[in-house]
Structure formats: structure tokens, C-alpha cells
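Two quick folds needed for the group meeting slides. Do the first one here.
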Amino acid sequence: MTWLMDLTPDEWEAVRLSIKVATWAMIGSLPFGIAVGLLLARTEFWGKSIVNGLVHLPLVMPPVVTGYLLLLGFGKRGPIGSFLAEHFGIVFSFRWTGAALACAVMGFPLMVRAIRLSIEAVDRRLEAAAGTLGASAPWVFLTITLPLTVPGIIAGMILSFAKAMGEFGATITFVSNIPGETQTLPSAIYTLTQVPGGDAAALRLTLISIAIAMGALLFSEVLARRVSGPRDSR
């Protein structure tokens, strides 16, 4: 069974790049996930259903469509992509940063949903009590709401990370499949299935993908339990 870990340098690079892309996708989308989750959980405004639909749209659209829209907007000739490249030197198309952006967009709905549900579960009476003691709204959020929603935030982060590890359609459409630059695990597995004799390598990477995703889910469960404290076993 040693062949399972007998990875080539290109395969190790795909594993490393996938973890890098998924980590940055998770970290980069976290502040926006908390802000949008708080907005949807605590604010009533005209068009809230539309905003909620737009947030969750990547879940129901074909990933290729999401990748194509990112290419139109963030490509070198796109309005946002050309502005960022010209003024800040930031390039997304056909770069690993673009893969991180695509993965962040695809995992964003899962992160927002977990955070929103966690915020909605917070007892508003605790916040009201802090307010009556003179605490400002930002201070109440930082000291009451945010700590109570940490398990939900962790769950959202891990869901986003796991989604990013498995993202294929949007990524390959937006940044292509360039070894060493944008070839993540799903792209590498797809490439190996098209090559004669690549079944063994594809199986190795598949098992590694499963192990990383399962490890992330188990880690989030353990961490969430530690943060939320011991629960009544009854």
C-alpha cells in the first residue's frame, strides 16, 4: 500500500496548491461572511430576499456559469480585473489568486448560512441587558454576539474550506488548469483520468482529498465543542 503515498512532485504540488487556495479562500471571505450573516440575521430592509438570493445563487447555478461570470468581471479585460491590474497590480485570471477567488465565491453561501443561523440563535435578551448597562452596539456585538456565534463561524469556515478543496467547475473556467499555478486537486484528478495509466495517481489524489475533507470536518467538530463548552449529556 506504499504506492498510495508515492506521490510525484507534480501531485504534491497539486495538494499544496489546493490547501493554499482553500485556506486563502476561507480567510478572505470570512469578514464578508460575518458582515452579510449579521445583515441578513438582524436587519429588515427592502430587497432582503433579493440579497439573500444573490448570496445563495452560486449554490444553484452551474459552477461553469459562475466561473464565466468571474472571467467577465475579473479577467484582464473585465471592468474590475483591469482596474485592479492597472492600479494595484492584482491579477486574478489564470493565477492561483483567481482560483482562491472562485473557491471563495462558491463556498460563500455555505459560510453565510452557518453564520446567519448562529447569530439568529443568540438570545437577544443578553444583548439588551448589555445595552441597558451602557454598552454601545459595536461593543455588544464584540463582547456578546460574536463570542456566542463562534461555533457557527467555525462551522462556516470549515464548510467553505471543504467546498474550496473540491471546487472544479468555476475554477477551471476562470483560471484554467495550469500545473503548478492553478491545478488544484480536482483539476489534477480530472487530468489524470484522461491520461492512459493515470488511474493509480488519480486514486491517490482522490483518497488524499477525502482524507483532507474528513479531517477538516472532524477538526471543526472538536473545535466547536471546545469553544461552546461542555454540554449537558441528558
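Then this one, please, same format:
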Amino acid sequence: MTDKKNKRVLGDEWLDWDGRKQEQDTSESRSTFLYLSLVVLALFVVIVLLFWYLVLPRFESFGQGWALVITGALGAAALFLVAWYIILVVAVVGNRRYVNVCLTRGSRLFFIMLPFVTRLAASVGISKDRLSHSFIRVSNELAGPGKGPGPVLVLFPRCLRADIRSRARELCSGYEDVRLHTAPGGTEARKIIRDTSPGAIVAVACERDLIAGIQDVAPRIPVIGIPNTRPEGPCTNTTIDTDELKAAIEYFLTPR
């Protein structure tokens, strides 16, 4: 551990940080996750077809009916993955949120694919934080408009720079149906969510915390994640664009 790390109170997701310099700007467009997930999806389909090729002779030995059953089942699985991806791209790129209902049940596919996409990204020189940033941008596009019963909950990390925090608090105070809380970590954030019963969440944090939080609550509660920037490294004096925070709050508060 370096002295620099020892002076910080690190969040749960940064406990393995060795004090080395981190990327200050992890911005990455949503297209990065979409392109890499397409490659992963293609690999999944190839694996399904290879499995079909290898097991088909065994099923044919039990009769043609069994061969048709396995062919139909694996074909349906491959078609489902392709159709799901097409709907995802239409929803994200075309901003056609009315198709999000088709993705609600399949949203866990995001998190099933995420580790594979992360490994693929690492192999081409894209860091985990940058890939996570891209994933969050895709997830934000799928957050349904409007909110459920309950306020809009805005969650801040404890590491937000003082002047940014003050400006953001002032911004949030201008909305009647917004509740602002600081969550030192994931456990505290979950407790705040249980106590507040929000209709929607706007969460400010690093990509690592946002990924964990989105996994916990989406799509049950619509979430927009705003990744912070870390000019001095993780867990100290982080910043955000308050205009992005304002846009996220108003997105949930604007009737549609």
C-alpha cells in the first residue's frame, strides 16, 4: 500500500487499489459496449451451432423426432439472442423507449454478457472502467421515462468535491419531489433505497459502484447512472457535470 492510498477512505469497490495512477477520464460512448457485445453474441451463436453439430448425431440415433427437437430448441435459442440484440440496438440508437418492455425480462442478459464483454475489451486495450462507462450509457438509454410512485432519489458518493456537492445540493433543492442522500457505500445505499422507496434513482458514483447498484435495482426501479471523474484518483475530490445531473432529474420528473 502506498501512503497516498492510506490517506484515503476507500469505497468497497476500490479496496484492491494499489495506489497507482488511475485513468482520469474514463468516458466511453455507448457504441463501444454495443459493438463488443455484438462480437460476444456472435461467439455465443457459434458455440450453440457447434454444440448442435456435435450432439445431433447422438440424437439422430434415438430417432428423427429427437433430432428435430434439439434442432428446434437450439435454433430458437440462437434466434432469441439475435432478436434480443436487434431490439436492444433499436431501443438505444433509435431512442425508441416503447420497445423497452421487450427488454425488461431479458435485462439480466446484460449482466450475463458483461463479464465476457469486459474480457474482450481488455484484450483490445479498453479498461474495465471505460467498458463499464459505456455499459452505463447503454443502461441509461433503457431507463423508462417517468417514474413510479415515490420521489426521485439522488444518491451522492462521499468523495464528491465540496463545491460540486454544494452546487448539486442547490440544484436538487429546486425540485419538490427529489430526495438527496449521500451513500458512503453499497450497504448504505441499499438501506437508503429501502427507506425511501423511490420511484426512480439518479446515482452519482464511479463506474464500479454504479454497475453494482444497477444490478441490484434495475429494472425494478428505473436508474440513471452518472459516472464521476477522478482527477486525483478514486475516492477523493471527484467531480460531475451538474448539467447532466439536472437533465437526469428532469427526465424522470417530466410527464410523458
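Slide caption for protein two: Residues 1-5 have pLDDT under 50 and may be disordered.
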